[in-house]
Structures are given as structure tokens and as C-alpha cells.
Design brief:
2 domains; Rossmann fold; 16 strands; 6-stranded parallel β-sheet
Length: about 350
């Protein structure tokens, strides 16, 4: 059986990622084998590489959960798909279909869920085994380079459209100009909000990209922008930064009876009081992952051009150049790196 190279996270220690040869996966009756066209590098891939993640990882594991490609093999029980179909895949590789969350369609919240790139082998390689239930058809006019970003777009859609209450004319502040932050800002703009994206001095380049989506960009304190309309703060703060401390800023900038939606992960404990949350009567909402209807909505937004991910793509690298792709994104020089396995 032919082997392929893969970007493998092999141990919990910092920097434990390397190129390894792996065998072609064997598929089950309800799976397809996908030949990967493009795979996006996610902040969580970087967190596993730098070892500052807060989720369990099944070492050794092939990284990559933002991917699309062509079906090259079908399990015997797979219906509705054909070899050659252009598809993207959701991330919920293993779920318990009988879990109460799964039965409600919220399988992303099934506590036993395992995703590509940490729970099972992901797509930073040539071939990946995917359950057919995870697949979505990619419209012909949508290039895989953009289609592979359906996943982070779906994270943003879930955070902004499903889990936040944003109305046209609202003032929304997004903390953190990474992929998820900028896509959350783009989604909030689609909802008719006036949006500011907040970053640090080092984020200047990425904030310029946020401006391409019609957003204001702010370095440092956003209190002035938050209060510009009536002095009370912003309607919604979306915290897409990878540190816990930004919640303190969110509590300062949000208006009374407003909402904070937290989508960024940060393993460090908080060291401040949550009393402002009580005093301001603020809703604090977590947002995790996505499910089938969200993917369908996002694919229609991408195919119609109403959501354009091209501005955030900083480059496309081969698998052998994974280190440069990771480094460019980690250092903030690009918002999103994309790999091309073939």
C-alpha cells in the first residue's frame, strides 16, 4: 500500500510536529476516502505545535481540520455521493448519534465528540478518511483554496448569527484580528452591525485586512469607540483572542444589558472579579464549533460572493513547507495559511 507524507503532532511537548510517512487510510462502510485539495492551518493547530492548548490530544495525530477535496473511494453503505465529487468536511469525526445533544442536531456539543486533527487523523496529508455524514457539496464556482475555509467561517457564523443577538445598527467590537476574529467581524457586518476590530501594535497588518471588510480597526483600548454613540458601550463584544485576560476588557466595553460572546480559547485562569457582569446585567455566551445547517448557510454565502475569504489568505504552501506556513501565521505576518498536499 502506498504511503503519503503527513504533518504529524507526535507528543505533548512544545514543537512536537514533523513530517512523517503514513499509510493510506482504510475506510469503513459509512466512510469515504478524500483526496485533499487544500487544508487551512487553524489557530488550534498552532496551539498544539506550541503546546499551549487546553484539550486532550490523541498522539500521534495528523493535524488539519479545515479541508476540502475530491472523493476517491466510497464505503459500501454510502449513498448520495460519487467518486470525483467536490466536497468539504465537517470536523465532528466521531460522535455518539444517541447522545441527547446529537439527537437535537447539536452533535458539536456531544461531550464524546472527537474531531479531526486532535481526536483522529486530520487532513494535512494526501488522503483522509471521512464519515459520509460530514460531507457537504462544494459549488463548482468555489475554489478549494476558499472552500477549505468553510470551517472557520462556520465557527464565526455560529458565534455571531446563532449565539449572539446582533441587529442592524448595533455596535459590535471583536477582540483579536486572527482568522476567527476577522470572520466574526465580517459576519457581524453582514448582520448590519457597525463593527470595530481590536488588536495590539503587532497586529497592524492583520487589522488592515479587517478594514477590507468595512470594519474600524483599533489598537489597544476601544472604550472611546464603544461609547461614541450614547456613552453606554457596545451592544455586543465578541472575544476571539487566545487569552483569558481580554474578558476584562470586554466587561469594560459592553453596554448594560449587552452581550459578550466568547469564541477564543485561553487556558490561563482569570484573575479578576466578574462583578461587572452582574452589575451590568450582561449575558456571557460561549460558542463552540458548528453543525450541518450552519455549513449549508456558509457555503451559500461563499458561493454567492457575499462572504469573500480571499483577503485573509496569506499564502499557499506545500506540506514540506508546513513550518514556514505555521511560522508566518504564528508571528502574525499572515491571517491564514493554507497548505496544498499534492
Amino acid at each position: 500500500m502506498s504511503n503519503s507524507i503527513a504533518v504529524v503532532n507526535f507528543a505533548p511537548e512544545k514543537g512536537s510536529v514533523e513530517i512523517r510517512e503514513i499509510p493510506k487510510p482504510k475506510i469503513g462502510d459509512e466512510d469515504v476516502l478524500l483526496e485533499v485539495a487544500n487544508v487551512g492551518v487553524c489557530g488550534s493547530d498552532l496551539h498544539q505545535w506550541t503546546s499551549d492548548h487546553s484539550w486532550p490530544v490523541n498522539y500521534p495525530v495528523v493535524l488539519g481540520h479545515e479541508f476540502g477535496g475530491h472523493i476517491v473511494e466510497l464505503g459500501k453503505d454510502v449513498d448520495g455521493w460519487m467518486e470525483g465529487d467536490r466536497v468539504v468536511s465537517e470536523t465532528a469525526a466521531i460522535i455518539d448519534l444517541n447522545n441527547p445533544m446529537s439527537r437535537k442536531g447539536l452533535y458539536n456539543l456531544d461531550p464524546t465528540r472527537k474531531g479531526f486533527g486532535y481526536g483522529v487523523n486530520g487532513a494535512m496529508t494526501r488522503f483522509v478518511k471521512v464519515p459520509a455524514r460530514c460531507l457537504h457539496s462544494v459549488p463548482e464556482n468555489l475554489a478549494f483554496e476558499q472552500a477549505c475555509l468553510t470551517e472557520p467561517c462556520s465557527v464565526a457564523y455560529n458565534a455571531v448569527v446563532v449565539n449572539s443577538n446582533i441587529n442592524p445598527g448595533d455596535r459590535v467590537i471583536v477582540i483579536g484580528p486572527g482568522t476567527i476574529g476577522i470572520l466574526c467581524a465580517a459576519m457581524a457586518t453582514l448582520c448590519g452591525a457597525e463593527v470595530a476590530v481590536v488588536g495590539l501594535e503587532a497586529d497592524k497588518g492583520r487589522l488592515k485586512i479587517a478594514e477590507q471588510y468595512g470594519c474600524h480597526s483599533i489598537i489597544g483600548d476601544a472604550i472611546e469607540w464603544a461609547n461614541a454613540q450614547d456613552g453606554l458601550g457596545a451592544d455586543c463584544i465578541i472575544d476571539a483572542a487566545g487569552v483569558s485576560a481580554t474578558l476584562k476588557n470586554a466587561l469594560k466595553w459592553v453596554r448594560p444589558n449587552g452581550q459578550i460572546t466568547k469564541v477564543g480559547w485561553g487556558p490561563r485562569p482569570l484573575d479578576f472579579s466578574l462583578d461587572p457582569l452582574v452589575q451590568k446585567n450582561v449575558r456571557l455566551q460561549g460558542s463552540f464549533s458548528h453543525n450541518w445547517p450552519i455549513w449549508e448557510k456558509v457555503l451559500s454565502l461563499l458561493a454567492s460572493g457575499r462572504l469573500d475569504v480571499k483577503p485573509i489568505i496569506g499564502g499557499v504552501w506545500g506540506l514540506n513547507d508546513w513550518h514556514e506556513a505555521f511560522e508566518q501565521m504564528h508571528s502574525g505576518q499572515v491571517v491564514k495559511s493554507v497548505l496544498k498536499p499534492s
